[in-house]
């Protein structure tokens, strides 16, 4: 009986050491966390619309991501970098292309974006109804002004 308790105590300790070692080792796996140069923004209808986009979308949809402290620590860094890299592929306000204009309004009206997990950690990105309406109106104009790739 005594032996058994000792055995499981050692097992527990070994497991903790193993987990700690894994946590340390995964920190060395490279994660692509870049802020490439700014190429071309859309033709914003106003500074106000741009400010909304910066506040709510830029962290994942621009080359001006503010990488939070927890994005330095694996495995969280993998999720954050994954969101940003995937987000930029779908829509990048710093490398604007006319085709990006297609789905933006729909995503906003259906409240699909920003991602829920992002709002949990960035409460200031939450827009109230008035702000959301203003942002959508501004974006509609911006998209209309930015229909040509130049
Ligand atoms: C936390 C990161 C994050 C934030 C913040 C964010 N997005 Fe996204 N967005 C993503 C990711 C990841 C994808 C690709 C996967 C998907 O569609 O869910 C995406 C996809 C999109 C797409 C393409 C959707 C499609 O299916 O074609 C649009 C449009 C979009 N986002 C708009 C926005 C707008 C507008 C904002 C700001 C209001 C915003 N996003 C904020 C991460 C984010």
Polypeptide structure, described:
The protein starts with a helix and ends in a 5-residue tail after the last helix. The longest helix is centred in the N-terminal third of the chain and has 25 residues, at 2-26. With 150 residues, the chain is mainly alpha-helical. Helix 5 runs antiparallel to helix 7. The protein folds into two domains: 1-30; 32-145, no CATH class. It contains seven helices and no strands. Heme C binds next to helix 3, helix 4 and helix 5. Heme C binds at residues 56-57, 59-61, 83, 86-87, 90-91, 103-104, 107-108, 113-115, 118.
Question: What is this structure's SSE topology?
Answer:
Blueprint: H1 2-26, H2 47-56, H3 58-61, H4 76-90, H5 101-109, H6 116-121, H7 129-145
Bound molecules: heme C.
Work out the strand percent: under 5%
Q: Which hetero ligands occur in this complex?
A: heme C
Number of strands: 0
Number of helices: 7
Radius of gyration: 22 Å
Termini separation comes to: 78 Å
Tell me the major beta sheet: none
Output the helix-strand order.
Answer: HHHHHHH
Total discrete domains: 2
Mean pLDDT: 94
Describe the oligomeric state of these chains in a short phrase.
single chain
State the low-pLDDT regions, or none.
none
Helix content: 55-70%
């Amino acid at each position: 009986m005594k032996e058994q308790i000792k055995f499981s105590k050692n097992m527990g300790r070994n497991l903790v050491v193993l987990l700690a070692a894994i946590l340390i080792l995964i920190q060395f796996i490279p994660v692509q966390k870049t802020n490439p140069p700014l190429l071309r923004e859309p033709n914003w209808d106003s500074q106000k619309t741009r400010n909304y986009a910066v506040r709510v979308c830029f962290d994942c949809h621009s080359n001006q991501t503010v990488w939070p402290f927890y994005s330095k620590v694996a495995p969280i860094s993998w999720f954050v970098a994954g969101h940003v890299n995937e987000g930029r592929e779908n829509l990048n306000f710093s490398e604007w292309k006319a085709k990006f204009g297609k789905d933006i309004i729909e995503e906003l009206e259906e409240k699909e974006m920003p991602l829920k997990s992002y709002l949990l950690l960035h409460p200031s990105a939450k827009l109230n109804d008035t702000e959301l309406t203003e942002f959508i109106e501004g974006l509609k104009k911006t998209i209309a002004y930015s229909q040509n790739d130049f």
